[in-house]
Amino acid sequence: MINEDDSVHIIDMDQFNSDDLETILHRILGYVKTTTNSDAGSVYLKDGDNLVFNIFQNNSFSYETIFNLQKPLRKLKFPICEDTETIAVESFIKAKVISVDDVYKSNRFCFETSKKFDKEFNYKTKSILTAPLMDTTTNQPIGVIQLINKKDENGESIPFSRQDEEFITLSSYLIVLSILCTKQNMTDIEKLNAKLEENVIQRTHELEETQKKLIEQINRDPMTNLYNRRYFNEIIEKIFPILQRGETMMSLVMVDIDDFKNINDTHGHAVGDVVINSLADVFRKTLRNSDISIRFGGEEFLLLLTNTNLENSLKIAEKLRKNIENLAIKVNDSEDVKFTISLGVSEVSRDDNNVDVVLIRSDKALYEAKNQGKNQVCYK
């Protein structure tokens, strides 16, 4: 997220001061690459009727390799014309940000240069994000900036996000401003700086909202819209110390759909998905707003019942069981599908050292419910 402090940081040109354009561009590209957690990046500038390679950075290569690559890469030229199937050219011509999740699965662009590079240097290009460098005084592009292979916290390649697209757009103004610093007079620079500041302020709120939506999406199961295991791991670290102090109560309920494989095998996976979503709807209708429903994996769910002791948790679990037992899902005009669930309940106690202890108890209770014939509630 870009906050107000970051905005000041971005428009403070002291950190990018240099009489050498290449040095400035390397500093800015490094900043953008680090902020978006990208493995590599490059800048292409317009030269006549071509886009010409200018600078290149790649965290996977040594400094010596990068240095030796700069010269041959500068020979790369891409004609600025329609139907080149080149992402940098299309981004330049259409003056828009373009993102590709996997270059080897893209039917839109050929990525011949990227694939050649991968083969020659034993690299793996995957995600690419490209943005035009717009001169706001003429409203014309002067080049493009490209980021390659966004990484997650584990170093795995992932697609670039909407937030990354917003950030690279803002960064493109900074790059243009830096280029013009070496070519234009101070009056033009002041105009561009003011324009950049205005754009950053204008987009700050929008980016904050984007981040909130992204966080919500990350924490939700895409099919049921219930919370996912990642969210459980996050919140339990905050909740568990409070539970251990006895300041509040909580019970965990493990829920599993009985004979779910048989449902998929008999009726197909589409019906299996409807069953899972129907169970999620029952959770939403039956539980309180303060309770948390989590899709723990496949057909298994975890319920966090807040301010609820074991006795009341068993009542809630039994109510859920009955609601599902009485539920019929219409598959077609002549057939309904019915299913049941088994539930394992455990209350968090002050003696529990960590949440895993409670999860194990709940899981054992669920296992017991399964062994005793399914469609029932057990507790530990």
Number of domains: 2
CATH superfamily of the largest domain: GAF domain
CATH architecture of the largest domain: 2-Layer Sandwich
Main β sheet profile:
7 strands, antiparallel
Q: Within the CATH hierarchy, at the fold level, what is the topology of the largest domain?
A: Beta-Lactamase
Unreliable spans? 1-18
Rounded mean pLDDT is: 84
Number of helices: 12
CATH structural class of the largest domain: Alpha Beta
What is the overall silhouette?
Answer: elongated
Explain how this protein is built.
- By secondary structure, the protein is α+β, with helices and mostly antiparallel strands.
- The chain has 2 domains: 4-216, Beta-Lactamase (2-Layer Sandwich); 227-379, Reverse transcriptase/Diguanylate cyclase domain (Alpha-Beta Plaits, 2-Layer Sandwich).
- It contains 12 helices and 15 strands.
- It has helices at residues 4-11, 21-35, 63-73, 87-94, 112-121, 162-181, 186-218, 229-244, 260-267, 269-286, 310-325, 355-371, and strands spanning 38-47, 50-58, 77-79, 98-100, 128-135, 140-151, 157-158, 227-228, 250-257, 292-297, 300-306, 329-332, 335-337, 341-347, 377-379.
- Strands 1, 2, 3, 4, 5, 6 and 7 form a 7-stranded antiparallel beta sheet that branches. A 6-stranded mixed beta sheet has the order 8-10-11-9-14-15, with helices on both faces.
- A hairpin with a 5-residue loop joins β6 (140-151) and β7 (157-158).
- The longest helix is centred in the middle third of the chain and has 33 residues, at 186-218.
